[in-house]
Amino acid sequence: MTMKKAPSTSIPAAACGGGLYLPVLLALFFLALAPGGRAFQQFQPSRCSRRRRVVVSAAMEPGDVSGRTYDLAVIGGGPVGVSAALLAASKGASVVLIDAPRASGALMNEATGEDLSLGGPTGLFSKALRASVKRISVGSLKGMGLRDDSIWNEIVTSCVELASFNARDALRQLDYAGVSYVKGHAAFADSGGPSSLIVTPDSSSGGQLVSGIATLTAKRTLIATGSTPFRPGGIPFDGRRIFDSDSINTLSRLPKSVAITGSGIIAIEFAKIFKNLGSDVTLIIRDSIPRNALMKIGLDKDIAGMLVADLARSGIKVERGAQVKKFNVPRDNDKAPVVLDLEARNGGERPTGAATTIKCDIYLAAVGRKPNTANLNLAAAGIRTDEFGGIVVDSRLRSTARGGNVYAAGDVLGRPFLASTGTAQGFAAVEGMLEEEKKLAVEALEGVEADTMDEHQPSTFEDRYDPKNLASNPFAFPIGVWTSPEAAYYGLSMQQCKELGINAGEGVALYAECLRGLVFSPNGLLKLVFDKDNGQIMGVHICGDDACELIHYGMELVKAERTIDDVLSNLYSAVTFHEMYRIAAMAAVDEAGARKRRAAAGRALTARNSGISQE
């Protein structure tokens, strides 16, 4: 069978979604813009670049930009907004970035009142928390007799340091590029059309009180306001004992016990984080088969099974086929437990309707996210949203705004809610704006009536980041699950191959089959899914240490239509995780030999663990 070539993709951001990658991304970006660099030679600024510089230590007040006209206004200060603003500024555009304060769940420096969310992805707190847990040995600190509050203060301090570095670096980059950075709430004006924006000040900006409402004009606007947690009805969120995946950032102490509802990436990430912090964790999953819940988000069945098994091995209690029916939250006693009344659903561990209770210090609802489009006054600009609140855009990421000058990118469009795809969409939107601007300029010079681009006109701008196709395209981007162990995948699974009529096979390598894996991460695996008719690799699935890094080599194998024979012909450095690619390819052509190798690896792992226990 001849497979169609996987769609060519090029995502210019770190593709495992989130993390403190932005300083590196921006550093590389501006290195390309240095005099003599390729990107620097591709444009000529249309006007003098001596713009007013932003004070790095604080945002501008809305009044400072009132009455001004900009080539581009970017609404939203996450990685999508910041990266897009920097790209547009590098092309010679005058840019204002308007960033609303994170009123709920912002990662703050309490000593300075500094909002550390600028430039950070959704889930910045979980990324910083996970990194801090790796840097700080909680078990060792407890063994030294440190109290939980002291340990938590140490962890939070580490989180603030990581986030502060990220935010301040973003400010420096904006300052360097000449982007006007304003802290405030932006919305489209009731009059003046889509080009008119109103900016309402925050109660504080850089620690200084501000007043007044600013009105500015933008030839183009990019909406990159991200997403907010989905909050099911009936849950008494209070930011004290009951949290969502944003407000958990305000947690002020190390909880002894945590109950989490959810079966997706966010829920599993936080379950492992709190377990590694020493908390007792209960994960409440509505699905009766936890592995199925993970497979719904695209994980291979074996990878999903490994993550579920790891939850149990870590000591996390999984309440499957259950839902919380009632919350009993103590009003004035933080030491008294929150009591959750659970009801069993069909197929769970208990008979349908059976009741049980769970006691916990805190409860976290991690049941998904939704586009953050509230309070933008989108209707005034003629911008439509879908049933989930996501902004409706065409293949060029252009919204339905009158005049066609408002674009959107990132989580505000809906799935897949990844920083990597959102940043790529932001880049694509800016490139689309510049292309349209160039077209209009040519028309004006030639005396042709200027008009906005028709979506059916040929364009050099590729539509591969169209959200209507992006989330459902397995070749669009890799997925990384930042649990411990990590999980990642790119391309098709065995089930997807079967649905497409592909005669698929798989080659599996255990981490324990290579020396590095045996020592550092013996419980992981790497799987190559391939077409048996021609050997072409159709998908790569990994669970174990550095999975979110290893997946990028697998992505290139799939995109380049490499075969099992190609992998076998390559040499891989010894004592590296990449050796597993060759081991998996060997398993694909010699399953009997693979079974023997896995059995030997299992015996070696047993001997290793026995030796460790005797020590």
TrEMBL record:
One Pfam family linked to the record: Pyr_redox_dim
Subcellular location(s) of the protein: Cytoplasm
Alphabetically ordered keywords of this record: Cytoplasm, FAD, Flavoprotein, NAD, NADP, Oxidoreductase, Signal
Signal sequence annotation: 1-39
Location, primary (coarse class): cytoplasm
Ranges of residues in domain FAD/NAD(P)-binding: 70-426
Listed InterPro entries: Class-I_Pyr_Nuc-Dis_Oxidored, FAD/NAD-bd_sf, FAD/NAD-binding_dom, FAD/NAD-linked_Rdtase_dimer_sf, Pyr_nucl-diS_OxRdtase_dimer
A single Gene Ontology CC term: cytoplasm
GO MF terms held by the record: NAD(P)+ transhydrogenase (Si-specific) activity
Cofactor(s) required, per the database record: FAD
Top enzyme class: oxidoreductase
Enzyme Commission number: 1.6.1.1
Keyword set includes Transmembrane: no
All residue ranges annotated as the Pyridine nucleotide-disulphide oxidoreductase dimerisation domain in the record: 478-582
Domain of life: Eukaryota
UniProt keyword annotation of NAD present: yes
Known role: Conversion of NADPH, generated by peripheral catabolic pathways, to NADH, which can enter the respiratory chain for energy generation.
Record protein name field: NAD(P)(+) transhydrogenase (Si-specific)
Organism encoding this protein: Stephanodiscus triporus
Lineage: Eukaryota, Sar, Stramenopiles, Ochrophyta, Bacillariophyta
